[in-house]
Every structure is written in structure tokens, then in C-alpha cells.
Amino acid sequence: MHTRLLEIIRYKTGGRQTEFAALVGWSPQYIAKLLRGENFGLQPALTLILKFPEINARWLLTGQGDMFENKKYDTIRKKMHESISKLLDIEKYMPVMSPIELREFEQVVTGKRKADFKPETVEKWEGLLRDGNNGINAELKAKTDKSNELCKTRKGKK
Predict the structure, then answer these.
(1) pTM of the model as a whole
(2) 3 state SS of 14
(3) What CA–CA distance (Å, rounded) separates 116 from 105?
């Protein structure tokens, strides 16, 4: 069970045993003892099962099955899809982001920072993107009009 405890510690705190001990209410020394396989009885297992209901009790006790209950996988997938959708919504503004904003977005994408772009920032990006598109459309229209005019002029010369 001590190897499965180590997996739980990695999942909950990224492997930081002292942080995990505080989370569960155990001493770091007790965690170290359990990880050595000493006195890993029913009481520590019950504590873990009660503290972390997403952990599959059968897996913890016997090693059979997956670490998480299926509901936990569904929750993780749902959160993942929501995060990806939010990032894709912001991705379209990359061409109008300042270098600092682009660096912040990169940190969000790489998981170094939480996505917390203010609504006024997104509105600013929308405006810049709209202005850029309007400029491109106006330029395209002007060139199309000029091309049409040239075509008419050449037809008239024949």
C-alpha cells in the first residue's frame, strides 16, 4: 500500500510529503514511516478514503482497478475541455496582443499561470481585431473596385 500512498501524494501535492502530511493532518515522520511500509494498517487507509473520496478504495486496499473512481475521470475531462475551450477562445486574439500580454498567454498555455484575463482586456483585443479586419476589408474593397474599374476601362478601348 505504501507505493499507492506515494501515488496519492504525487497526485494531491506533486510529491511534496510535508505538504501532504499537513493536508491529511499527519506528521511528516508518520508519512515517512508509512512510505517505508511500516504500520500501514486499516486506520491510515480509512483516513485516506474518507479524506479523498475520489480515490478508489479497492485500488488503495488491493491494488486492483484504477486510482480514481470513474466519476473523477469524468470531472477531470470536463475541466480539461472547459480549459481548452477558454484557451481557444483567447487564441484568436494573439495577433493583437502586446508582447507582455502574449507572454502572459504563453504562461497560461504552459500551465505556469492561471487564465485571468480581465473583460476589459478581452474587449480591447476584440476592438483591435475588429479594427484590423475592417482595415483589411476596406483595402480589399478599394483594390477590387480599382480592378473592376481597370477592367471596364480596357473593355471600353476595344
Answers:
(1) 0.48
(2) coil
(3) 10
